[in-house]
Specification:
This is Bifunctional UDP-N-acetylglucosamine 2-epimerase/N-acetylmannosamine kinase. With 722 residues, this protein is of the alpha/beta class. 38% of the residues lie in helices and 19% in strands. The strands form 5 sheets. The protein has a 7-stranded parallel beta sheet, with helices on both faces. The chain has a 6-stranded parallel beta sheet with strand order 10-9-8-11-12-13, covered by helices on one side. Strands 16-15-14-17-21 form a 5-stranded mixed beta sheet, with helices on both faces.
Length: 722
Amino acid sequence: MEKNRNNRKLRVCVATCNRADYSKLAPIMFGIKAESEFFELEVVVLGSHLIDDYGNTYRMIEQDDFDIHTRLHTIVRGEDEAAMVESVGLALVKLPDVLNRLKPDIMIVHGDRFDALALATSAALMNIRILHIEGGEVSGTIDDSIRHAITKLAHYHVCCTRSAEQHLISMCEDHDRILLAGCPSYDKLLSAKNKDYIGVIRIWLGEDVKPRDYIVALQHPVTTDIKHSIKMFELTLDALISFNKRTLVLFPNIDAGSKEMVRVMRKKGIEHHPNFRAVKHVPFDQFILLVAHAGCMIGNSSCGVREVGAFGTPVINLGTRQTGRETGENVLHVRDADTQDKILQALHLQFGKQYPCSKIYGDGNAVPRILKFLKSIDLKEPLQKKFCFPPVKESISQDIDHIMETQSALAVDLGGTNLRVAIVSMKGEIVKKITQLNPKTFEDRIELIVKMCVEAASEAVNLNCRILGVGISTGGRVNPREGIVLHSTKLIQEWSSVDLRTPISDSLHLPVWVDNDGNCAALAERKFGHGKGVENFVTLVTGTGIGGGIIHQHELIHGSSFCAAELGHIVVSLDGPECLCGGHGCIEAYASGIALQREAKKLHDEDLLLVEGMTVKKEEVVSAVHLIQAAKLGNAKADNILRTAGTALGLGVVNILHTMNPSLVILSGVLASHYISTVKDVICHQALPSAQAVDVVVSNLADPALLGAASLVLDYTTRRTY
């Protein structure tokens, strides 16, 4: 059994101020309550929880069967700047008596609200250890200042993203006291979407409303520019009225300016408008079902840029309140929302779309990490904080055992014969690989891909790997923007016009990237192989077919119709052998594994293949391997075929040199080592002198398809470019 580092139960005080922070704190509270042998839970409720105008949301804490040990009325009404300051002062007056009575070992404080600042200040001055949830993030308005102030008061930090972790380290916080856990609310979110949601939609929006055909609106005042935020809210309501879709509008929070925003709602008759449902509060379990199945969410709530990404629901983020937040591709920003037309245009662009699910803010395992972190706290350690001033250690993140989790990708390789899924680390190490025969039908293939990915993702937890996304390498022409296989090669049946992204993203709640296998090979070289740091290079893949990828100015070229780098179909002879594409004289018709197998069978049928030292059993299929073996053993005809194939490949490379002028050509695949000498000879004799200086090398990567699929994920997610 796990042991606490202390000889007694840890007394944990969780203080919650409003409906938003309770949605993050509740999963932790349930976890603490479930492990009563380690923890004593004390719950303090204050702030807008206790105000009727904001829904008396303390009741949902009672409904969750938590004992509320103290209720503190700390809000001074007025909903302006002075009222916020007075509310902080009132909380500071009342909290010392409560903390003296409870005597907690540690207080858990969430986020960036003014109430939370009062909690952190009181606890710090009374020598109570503070665990701050969601520190290090960047948004906008006064919230940033409050959040970072709480960070400086807190002794321990639980952050949700790697960027937030880096911000905390940059703020000189002790990296041994930072836990990268993910957002606690994601532990509930990722299992919520498939629950019975139809009934919830009907309760809050009406019997006639269908999924994906309504809007959720949640907009708060911006305390540093109240006048503009009220005007923006008015424009938002006008745009929603014009858009004419059923809309659930939640009342704003209690910040300065909220009273004026409510007046705007009532002035426009929103509470009585047939298309609107205006509510003070929706229970979190029901709220996440509503946003998961909405056609769009609009406003400036952090929920829109954080939690909603888990479902791929389109979001319109208005104004500057969330400036700096990391977001998924489902978020459309309208930073300067100064006209109704801008907001209306955003609604037309976003409504009804479905985006890949994003797990930037969590993977559903935050609470176990946080509980482990709490158990590791040694109360005998000095209470005084230590700051780690520069130089700062590089990118150290901790999991539940305070060991860095390995940032990894799930890589999928769809070959003509086998289907492979691997866990690949940031350094290109294949941590785990699963191989199955590739099914012949579309339905069986999709089902198996999802099953293998789920299995690998589960195994990743045991292997201490944090999966950032799924990358898929497949044959054929691919639209990587949409994650769709447009046309497949003949080697993979029932594989045209296939949406790969949606079913896998929906099942795993992970972002998914898809690209052609040749392009993936080039990406693998760029990240892990000879192409690392090279501005312009070309990769040629020699295998069953011939493919490739082109890197120009460090970026992969896809072409206007995603047909770039079909290098196997460069024509090197007008009257050459027929290719699988239907043309004649393509490189693939000479130099692919299929082409060599064809020539090997011809020789074998004429009894010209086998030489001394070779045998082919009756049941054995003649392949390119036998042709290569025969050439090595002195079969002149086999050697001529290989030389012709190498010459065809070399002529194709010369055409590439004269077209793209790369500084490097990488030959990849099982046949590369057999062709490189001939290719270099052809370049020497056929290429222009200015192009002959090119380096031609054989790839040193053991598995470029899987590594390339992984690099789709690792390059994108670590750049954070959206």
